[in-house]
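batch job 7 of whatever, protein = Pyruvate kinase
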Amino acid sequence: MYSKVGDVLASFAEFCVRTAHGIDIAGFDLRSLSASALIRCGSHGEHRHRGDTRGAPQRRARAEDEDRVHARPASRSVPVLEKLLRAGMNVARFNFSHGTHEYHQETLDTLRIAMHNTGILCAVMLDTKGPEIRTGFLKDGKPIKLKEGQEITITTDYNIKGDENMIAMSYKKLPVDLKPGNTILCSDGTITLTVLSCDPEAGTVRCRCENTAMLGERKNVNLPGIIVDLPTLTDKDKEDILGWGVPNNIDIIALSFVRKGSDLVTVRQVLGTHAKQIKLMSKVENQEGVINFDEILRETDAFMVARGDLGMEIPVEKIFLAQKMMIYKCNLAGKSVVTATQMLESMIKSPRPTRAEATDVANAVLDGTDCVMLSGESAAGAYPEQAVCPLPMSPLESLASSAVRTANKAKATLIVVLTRGGTTAKLVAKYRPRVPILSVVVPVLTTDSFDWMVSDESPARLSLIHRGLIPILAEGSAKATDSESTEVILAAALQKGVQKSLCKPGDAVVALHRIGIASVIKICLVK
């Protein structure tokens, strides 16, 4: 199985190298990946809490990337949900791995009150439990300590409460599908067990612990390289969808552990007439799903790059390539894609993300993702609102990158950026376009009730230290933000470009500017 996944990813990497600009991010050359390992953390970080919700994609008219938030039980109050909505949460994800229908109903009712109070729309996503494998309950409910080198027995009798000598797992065919030498990963991969022997008749598997760690109750289990005989939609999932989701007019169903395209056909048959209103989002979380990705993509409405469980199914150094492949193919198919797991993991305890996390979010945006998902940051985090707020800041980089990519593909001779403070133009320069950038600094008119003031020339002068930037000043106007005035400034900028020999009549020019709150990238022909 590993070799098949490797072939899929190697084929995509070869395609990237061959096409050079096929999925490069405005100058980031994927050919360098053959010389160095770019590793993006892929361990599971979902922190699924009882009855929680997770906020999700926020589709913004300003071409901003999207946030998904996983709200902890303490975040179920109306005031906190209102803050999350204002901060950028636009889809609430209800985790049906835990919690009762009544509990989730309370949360949904609270969310709808928050939506009504704020006037902000929020879609509802039902995340199915799926065919997951979990460890069982423990004696006295207390975590146990597993030591490196010790042997432990795994039983498929889920009624047994475990201890240091025996634990239960929920997969009945565990002794049949496993062989000596196989690996079992527990609790987000923090515990590694090596299979020593299997006894199908007794329903047990004897294993050796490869590291010392604490194991709690009902932790997730992964079997790397093993094709498990479990249905994508369990009886519980059907009950959750038909008994709670459909009556509540949910918008999206996130399907856990999708392994082939026919899984989605089955779900639509279960939905019946409701299949037209409810969209399906596939979560590929194992090797089989990666191998069958193309057929899954044909059947699904949207897609989630679930890096958590996937990071335990394929080598961690391959996660970045799997992410890029999935996002790229979703972009080609015109289907929404979410990048999930450990986006701002440190903000569970810290009010600020690490530099690596900020880079991870930005890279996901530049890869072409429609949404980024927060999970533990708000499920178990002390700063849920602060975790949501940083995410919408990254789309400006996405716009800058998109402008450069558009210029490259359109073979434009110039990029024109209308800016006030110069930040957007500097970001465009950051991605090293092959053509010059005409930064048109539009003065900002302000008043303190006594005098009218216009911003000075410093943003234009500061642009001079950036590669490829040619700053000019636009004439100030009290209506500089109106679309009509913007077109006048843009036309004047194009003529200025001709005068400076940056472009000539008939050339294609990429323009990046704002109209109201919307950001616009367009291709203009010089007259």
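notes: Residues 17-66 have pLDDT under 50 and may be disordered.
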